[in-house]
Amino acid sequence: MDPNLKNAQKVGDVVGLGIPNPDLRRCLTDLGIKTNTVAYRESGFRCELDSRIFCKNLFLKDRKGEFYFIICREETDVDFKQLKKRLNACRNFSFASPAELFRMLKTHPGCVSPFSFMHSSTADVRLVIDDSLCADENYLLNFHPFDARLTTQIRFKNILEFLRHFNKVPEIMKLVSKI
What we know:
10 strands; alpha/beta; two-stranded antiparallel ribbon; YbaK protein; eight-stranded mixed β-sheet; single chain
């Protein structure tokens, strides 16, 4: 049995696990932010009635070495050429390397989430959130809590509060999808 599941509580058809990262857990508790962490399910294995929004988090780099953290809906197919123009980025984007990902966000590929902004190494990372996530401050968003096997559900207003606590003000813009 997975040791992370040892003390889990059954909640409907998902398992309530708690946040495994003690620093993140302490920070959210200190801020009074309520979350629910459950086993992550691939999109094909989720209930059709599930109204939660699963987010895609992209950690990009332009040719000048500037870093960009993009948050959008999981199903959004971002048009990187349009995004580059809108952000005034230098030439084309590439995904940050695993070494850059760890150095800047203190996480690994597959575990990227806005919770990484709790680390001071993210000060120069430009944060962009798709405006479709902002339509309702009570939207329940899903992010990995530094573990790709889990997803933490948090309200949009609370992720903004978390980011503000670390002096991170996101740019909100409509992300253009590829056609």
